[in-house]
Here is the input.
Amino acid sequence: MKSILRGRRLITLMLLLFLTGMIVLVVRIQLEASFYISQSGKPCYGMVYDREGDVLFDGINGCEGYESGHFADIGSLIGDTSGQMTNTLVARNLESLTNYSFTTGMRQTGKTAIHTTLDHAANKATYSAFGKKDGIAIAYNYKTGEMLVNVSKPCVDVAKGYGDIANFPEGSLLCKAFYGTVPGSTQKVSTVIAATEILGAEQLESLSYSCTGSYLNDNRQSINCHKSSGHGKQNIFQGFANSCNPFFAQLLERSGMPLDRIISVYRSMGYAVNGDQKQTISIDGILSETASTTLQDIHDFDTQWSCMGQGETLVSPCQLMMWQSAVANGTGVSTRPHLIDTVTNVSGKVTKTASTEYTGQLFSVAAAQETRKIMLDNGKNHYAAAGKIKGYDIAVKSGTAQVNGGREENSLLVGFVDDPDFPIAFCVVIENRVSGEIATHQIVQKMLDALK
Here is the structure.
């Protein structure tokens, strides 16, 4: 009798274990079927939309049936499932796009989707504004973190495929906003932040230096100004607006500006200095490089040049834009950018919703507010008053970056709109710009108008 009871208990236990295992198996199949379908030979994907519902990627019907040029401005950012590009929204979020359910199978409704924060119309207008020039434009809402524009030109048109890939222009398969570039004088924003942190706003504003066109630093090396006749005596507002190299060289060599303090501020902002391990910024899975520079001797040309955006300094346009948010908000804390607003599954149910996130403290509130004051002064007196950017209270810093061994020059403009109802921070780069061609402020004007 006891053996029969033990047998019953054993059978009951085995049945419970079997049923538990079946339940776990069914649940795992339900939850993970989409992943295995995505790894199979015949995956089915969903859609990617902009903030207004415009299609940015069609994983159901393919991208070939859309009007010519529909994807020409966003191909290297959004990407596709071909495997040709890996650091794109689609490639980094394939599982969210898998258009399959174990219970319902594959769907053709377009409910499986990533809804982005991008404004495709503004993206197209900005892309068109570059004309024949290549470059980068990136803009986001510095209050919410919503990325609105991200143009990288040249850009692959995913609808045309990769049959002629050997003849694609260099950079077509990269979203260059996420990779380091020579910042030129936009680097002086970081140097102003460092100077404010070390000297304080009051002392920084009290300083003045003379520019005669060239300055001989303490190591007897010449720091030349772009204006050969010089700018004369200037304060920080004038030196910043004029992008005067001799002014900044003298500021860096000033007593009370020790190199270790400058390095400390740069590191706090996210620079990898003197061989530090470089980090990355993740934007919905897309990886963006962080800044790097080499600073060895504050009295040496190379170090001074690096603090002015040449030398070995590299910064991604995305990070240049993010620093602008920390200045614009007056907090020293950057709003983290994001591309994904919501994700919906095969049933149309929202499975992910974006939220506003922030970095840690990059620099002090005092440094943010002083830099904000200096940049707004530049925007008001040299851009708005000059009619370069109309209709906006703008804060800006321009830059010219020597690249390719000094054979070419890139033109940059970073800044933000000082408007709580239109809080846009941006970075624009025109590659290999020649005098007389389209200028960065003209692209910014068209981009802001399109967003407005």
About this structure: The longest strand covers residues 394-403. The radius of gyration is 26 Å. The chain is about 35% helix and 20% strand. Residues 2-39 form the longest helix (38 residues).
